[in-house]
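Summary for the steering committee. One of the milestones for this cycle was to obtain a three-dimensional model of the protein with iron/sulfur cluster bound, which we needed before selecting residues for the alanine scan. The sequence and ligand used are listed below.
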Amino acid sequence: MLQVRTVYAEPEARDSERGRQVLARFPDAEVVEVASHWQIPELHGNAGNVERWVRVKTETLVLGVKKSLSARPNGRSADFIAPSTSNGCAMACAYCYVPRRKGYANPITVFTNIDKITRYLRGHVRRQGLKAEPDQIDPAAWVYDIGENSDCSVDALISENVADLVATFRELPTAKASFATKFVNRDLLGYDPRGRTRIRFSLMPDRDSRLLDIRTSSIGERIAAVDDFVEAGYEVHLNLSPVVLREGWERDWAELLTRLDDELGAAAKAQAAAEVILLTHNRDLHEVNLGWHPKAEDVLWRPELQQAKRSQSGMWNVRYRNDRKREGVRGVQDLIAAHAPWLRVRYAF
Ligand code: SF4
């Protein structure tokens, strides 16, 4: 996944304990000092990197210090989005919405001030007190998404940040960490989460994943990991996304759900829950993808089924028309009820 040749580092991050640990993992990498992890001319705003995306992701890391810390309310997959300990991703899913501000390649930035971040989180959890009402997110715990802008399973190949987060939440009986992932990193099996970290393995039909999920673990590997992660003390949910409406999608989702029913053990099924999210896309991303992976756009860009909406940041986001979306959401829920009735749906939209 990673053969790091260049690390762009803020001096404070480079000289920190976590920064030195990361650099020790990549002793042959050239370290290039940068004033700010957000201002790296070689990486920023350079759509011309399209053909080199995967090389940039594989060979480049950024080390920075997270300046302002806050936990944003969420209300869907989590109660709060935790301050990120990294952003960017070494994988290259064609539909990925993770911000592409570091140039379209979006290599991983690791934040080295993990102690400050975990201290902030402990204080934030303490200030919430007990969760008064059960909700779809969790019956009792405040859930913090620790991987909104990255994939924690890959981040764990680079630093101990994810291990430190799991250890932090292990000691917080009123809260849980949570992250979605498309990569199976079995090192995480040794982290001893004691039920306070929820992993959401992202799943979609194999046919979609082979076309759209670039550099991820295969769907078969992700399914095979579920029982092992439950056994290791994680809560394991399923992130059924993105649901891509295309010829034959219902047949392929039925096949995936049947496979889950056949292959998951009783313990995994007893604690399972899922979130279902239909595809959203973006006009700029569509244009970029046409330059490197046009086949993906045959299924992602379906103007006859989709409607566009300008986002607050001025981007044109695209989603299925309301009627098609309603049908799609209902269709997936019906398939779950028919083929994997043990799978509680936390939310679907
Ligand atoms: S694994 Fe997640 S963060 Fe990484 S490219 Fe795919 S969708 Fe984006």
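Key point for the committee: The pocket of iron/sulfur cluster is lined by residues 89, 91-93, 96, 98, 151, 182, 216 (CB under 6 Å).
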